[in-house]
Specification:
Elements (H helix, E strand, L loop, with lengths): L5 H6 L22 H5 L14 H4 L9 E19 L5 E3 L5 E11 L4 E11 L2 E3 L12 E18 L2 E21 L21 E24 L4 E8 L3 E12 L5 E2 L4 H5 L9 E2 H4 L13 E8 L3 E9 L4 E10 L6 E6 L6 E4 L5 E11 L4 E10 L17 E11 L4 E17 L17 E17 L1
Antiparallel strand pairs: 1-2, 1-3, 1-22, 3-4, 4-6, 5-6, 6-7, 7-8, 8-9, 8-10, 9-14, 10-13, 11-12, 13-16, 14-15, 15-18, 16-17, 18-19, 19-20, 20-21, 21-22
């Protein structure tokens, strides 16, 4: 029966997107400030004047004066599709527009010390496919929310050196939905329903997992070195985070529309050949929903160690009005090798082999002051995907991406400023699968049965107040 819960284990892959910061793949979001977003996500060597350095490089808070309060939202519209190799049928992703908020508050205590606090949601996306999608047995309606709360302190021991550190408190929740395939269940007589003729991918139940209250702790550390009047170098390291998820799985029956004649093989195997005809198949499998049985409401839990990451950035003042920026990021995704999920009514834990690889991200940005009040920005990002070919599924069909950004900032006065940004995300087409591996066997690329496409449009806006 453990395979019937494979979607929970696989779908829980979504929670690997909770470590925060600017991870460059999966369901991650790096747009936690419209100024940084407009210049391609480059915020490590030269912070924006909106408090977002609390996240992008905590040391950037040092050297500020007075209070800075900023907040905003990034609207994300993701589109994509899956085209089946055999049927050539294309299924479109049905994601709604997702709002991702952010807020920062900083205070310059004196010339050397500053403090700040940040709230951001680095992972708040999901995947929604139509219920008729072939991949519905892996997952078709999933959402993820993670909230980061980070108090920060920064110190400037020398005019050219800044140090900063933040403490991350993370709260996560998720909702995952999948159809259950009757053909994979045991009839109770040593054979599966599929072995007695029930078609593969017979919808029998709708499973939904909800988990909330997962918490984790980590740190965010940064340093900035103003090497010359025209060159700044920054670095940031975010620690790995462990999240403990506890959730509940609920199953609702779905009619198979299969009616069995009297004396059918299933009735014979179950020792009830005298059952009259016709009989709906769902009645013969009703015991699966009884308390303590595989499709009864039950607890599910897992623990996941999120990867640590490091970023180094450079800011070059090409002129008094133009700054060029470059960031290089490494993410230690190789720590995510297996996922173990425990079920209340299962004797064996579910072990998923993922074999993720480390990733690297390159970001280029430009920030130009057109006037004293108006700034224009642009940027480009490239990063590779973490999942190997055998783990590209409807839940996480990620791959190499190219992203392009534009933005502008306008200061109405020394007190008020607004930043706007647009980002276009184009992911390389990636082969993947819609069906799970045989129970007890690791997935292979031979299971891939189609092509995933993915792109996104992001619009961000932030308001900043200095006082």
């Amino acid at each position: 029966m453990s395979r019937s819960f494979g979607f929970l284990a696989t779908a829980l892959l979504l929670v690997v997107a909770v470590p925060g910061g600017a991870i460059a793949q999966g369901f991650s979001v790096n747009e936690h400030g419209s100024c940084v977003m407009g210049r391609g996500g480059t915020g490590v060597a030269l912070p924006c004047n909106d408090g977002s350095s609390v996240l992008f490089n905590p040391s950037g808070v040092a050297g500020t004066t007075g209070w800075t309060l900023s907040g905003g939202v990034t609207l994300i519209k993701a589109t994509g599709s899956f085209t089946d190799d055999l049927t050539q049928q294309t299924t479109e992703l049905q994601n709604e527009i997702v709002p991702v908020p952010h807020a920062y508050l900083t205070y310059g205590i004196n010339q050397q010390w500053a403090a700040g606090f940040g709230f951001f949601v680095p992972y708040g996306l999901g995947s929604e496919w139509p219920v008729s999608f072939d991949g519905r047995f892996l997952g078709y309606d999933n959402s993820l929310h993670s909230m980061y709360f980070q108090p920060t302190v920064a110190w400037q021991p020398h005019p050219r050196i800044k140090l900063g550190a933040g403490f991350d408190f993370v709260v996560g929740s998720l909702k995952l939905t999948q159809r259950v395939d009757l053909s994979e269940f045991d009839t109770g007589a040593g054979l599966t329903f599929g072995q007695i003729g029930i078609p593969h991918h017979t919808d029998f139940a709708n499973g939904e997992l909800e988990a909330s209250g997962a918490t984790g702790f980590g740190g965010n550390f940064g340093v900035t070195w103003v090497a010359t009047d025209w060159l700044s170098i920054g670095a940031r390291y975010m620690t790995r985070v462990k999240l403990d998820y506890e959730g509940t799985a609920v199953f609702d029956s779905v009619h198979t529309n299969i009616v069995l004649p009297p004396g059918n093989p299933l009735s014979v195997l179950q020792g009830t050949p005298e059952l009259p005809a016709p009989i709906d198949l769902i009645l013969l499998a009703a015991d699966l929903y009884s308390p303590g049985q595989p499709l009864s409401e039950q607890d599910v839990n897992t623990s996941i160690t999120m990867p640590d990451q490091g970023i180094i950035g450079f800011a070059l003042k090409a002129s008094t009005k133009v700054t060029l920026l470059f960031d290089l990021q490494w993410t230690n995704w190789s720590v995510f090798d297996t996922l173990i999920v425990q079920f209340e009514h299962q004797t064996d834990d579910r072990v998923m082999i993922e074999e993720y690889k480390d990733t690297y991200s390159l970001r280029f940005g430009l920030d130009a002051a057109v006037t004293q009040k108006l700034a224009v920005r642009g940027g480009y990002l490239y990063h590779n995907g973490a999942s190997p070919p055998q783990t590209v599924t409807p839940l996480l069909p990620e791959g190499n991406r190219n992203e392009f950004t534009v933005g502008l900032g306008y200061s109405f006065s020394p007190m008020f400023a607004v930043d706007l940004a647009y980002q276009y995300l184009k992911q390389n087409d990636r082969r993947g699968r819609t069906r799970d591996a045989i129970a007890g066997q690791p997935p292979t690329a031979e299971l891939n049965n189609g092509l995933y496409t993915f792109q996104g449009h992001l619009i961000g806006g932030s308001l900043t107040v200095h006082f």
